[in-house]
Write a structure and sequence with these properties.
This protein is α/β, with parallel strands linked by helices and about 375 residues long. It has 2 domains: about 130 residues, 2-Layer Sandwich (Transcription Regulator spoIIAA), CATH 3.30.750.80; about 190 residues, Rossmann fold. About 30% of the residues lie in helices and about 25% in strands. The strands form 4 sheets. The chain has a 7-stranded mixed β-sheet, sandwiched between helices. Strands 1-5-4-3-2 form a 5-stranded mixed β-sheet. The chain has a two-stranded antiparallel sheet with strand order 6-7. Helix 7 links the parallel strand 9 and strand 10. The termini are close together. The N terminus and C terminus are likely disordered. Bound molecules: S-adenosylmethionine (SAM). The site of S-adenosylmethionine (SAM) has 21 residues, from helix 6 and helix 8.
Length: about 375
């Protein structure tokens, strides 16, 4: 159950309501102390000092500065080439009593002060519980604040205002670099490709052919813009395919030498797919099918951000990877490498159930927890 909000804070409105120290609930009878915002500001400033130097060495202009370092300030602050993207992770109680709204105001002011920027360049998003239905990748506004960021000499278009996510998942930077290193001369497949950032790295690494698959026209177009920004073009050798990966995999033909499989935790677009996908339940089917497309010496990277995810124990040859970039404190994803087109654990059947179509789901089935 997740719901998202988005917003940008104007300078005047912001400073009119500033406060720090004890926070009162709306009805005023539940006073409790929350950490002074100056603790957050100091931490952010300290992190930023070290992180900006690190980013210069790493040649990246989009990176994380604060990663829920202090539980009293449940925010992630990312830098995007002169802009800040602040994601809040409120607890239910904070939403109910409104304290998160006050905390957000303080955090925006403290971020502006610590990073010496105007609040107009700070974008806030809320990650909170919401019912099934609308997807994480839907548009929230049409303001379109775009910025091109750099990652190891490559350029990526990011949109800070319109969606919950910006177009570049910073936590996958290490895996993208790995793909680039391994891509030379390879046939590369990017499944659930989003804005095609893995493909851009594969292209930069010299991939011979690339196939980029995503359900969304918006993201397929965005991927093509990212190709262009880096001097590449979609075409016969570098195909961008708008398709449901689940259906596409049923008919797909390989072989591919390098595959990235990074599905969403849930996908429930009935209109487009006619079925629901849940990574915990369906990953075995997905990995099996994608792996079936590998060349004999091929490599598949599988990654998920689903909190509490457990890889099917039958995948005995899965190699867990340490893929979290240095600017992240929390383990926000898990990633494994699979070598070769072999099935799951030796001797285990090769035909796990495919993700069910919608009418096959039981009505009383409860949606699992998501973060
Ligand atoms: C977790 S993101 C992938 C992130 C991407 N690998 C990256 O690192 O940039 C999920 C993507 O899956 C796409 N998607 C969701 N369900 C899909 C489906 N059934 N088939 C194809 N794409 C799907 C969404 O449009 C979104 O772009």
């Amino acid at each position: 159950m997740l719901r998202w909000k988005t917003g940008r804070w104007g300078f005047n409105g912001l400073f009119g309501t500033l406060r720090s120290g004890p926070i009162h609930s709306r009805n005023g009878n539940d006073q409790r102390y929350v950490s002074d915002v100056s603790d957050f500001e100091n931490r952010l400033q300290k992190n930023a000092k070290q992180r900006f130097k690190w980013a210069e060495r790493e040649k990246v202009t989009a990176f994380r500065i604060y990663d829920l370092d202090m539980p009293e300030w449940p925010f992630a602050v990312d830098w995007y080439e002169g802009f800040a993207h602040v994601m809040e992770y409120p607890r239910r109680k904070q939403v109910r009593d409104g304290s998160i709204d006050e905390a957000r105001i303080e955090v925006v002011r403290a971020t502006a002060a610590a990073l010496q920027m105007v609040p107009e360049k700070i974008f806030t998003k809320t990650h909170e519980k919401r019912p099934w239905g609308r997807g994480q990748y839907e548009r929230l506004t049409t303001t379109s604040t775009l910025v091109n960021v750099k990652e190891h000499g490559l350029t990526f278009e990011c949109n800070l205002s319109d969606y919950l996510d910006t177009g570049l998942f910073l936590d996958h930077r290490v895996t993208r670099a790995r793909v680039r290193q391994e891509a030379k001369g390879k046939r590369f497949l990017n499944l659930f490709a989003y804005t095609g950032s893995f493909t851009v790295h594969a292209l930069a690494g010299g991939a011979a052919e690339t196939t980029t698959v995503d359900l969304s026209n918006t993201y397929c177009d965005w991927a093509e813009r990212n190709f262009k920004l880096n001097g590449f073009a979609a075409g016969e050798e570098h195909r961008v395919i708008r398709a449901d990966v689940l259906g596409w995999l049923e008919d797909a033909r390989g072989p591919f030498d390098l595959i990235v499989l990074d599905p969403p935790s849930f996908s429930s677009s009935k209109k487009k797919m006619g079925r629901r996908f849940e990574v915990q339940r369906d990953h075995r089917w997905l990995i099996e099918h994608a792996r079936g497309l590998l060349s004999p010496t091929g490599t598949l990277y599988f990654s998920t951000n689903f909190l509490g995810f457990e890889l099917d124990a039958r995948f005995k040859d899965a190699q867990p990877l340490d893929s979290l970039p240095g600017d992240f404190r929390r383990s926000v994803h898990q990633c494994w490498r699979f070598l070769g087109p072999v099935g799951v654990a030796d001797g285990v059947d090769r035909s796990p159930a495919r993700p069910a179509r919608d009418h096959e789901h039981r009505k009383d089935q409860h949606p699992p927890k998501r973060r």
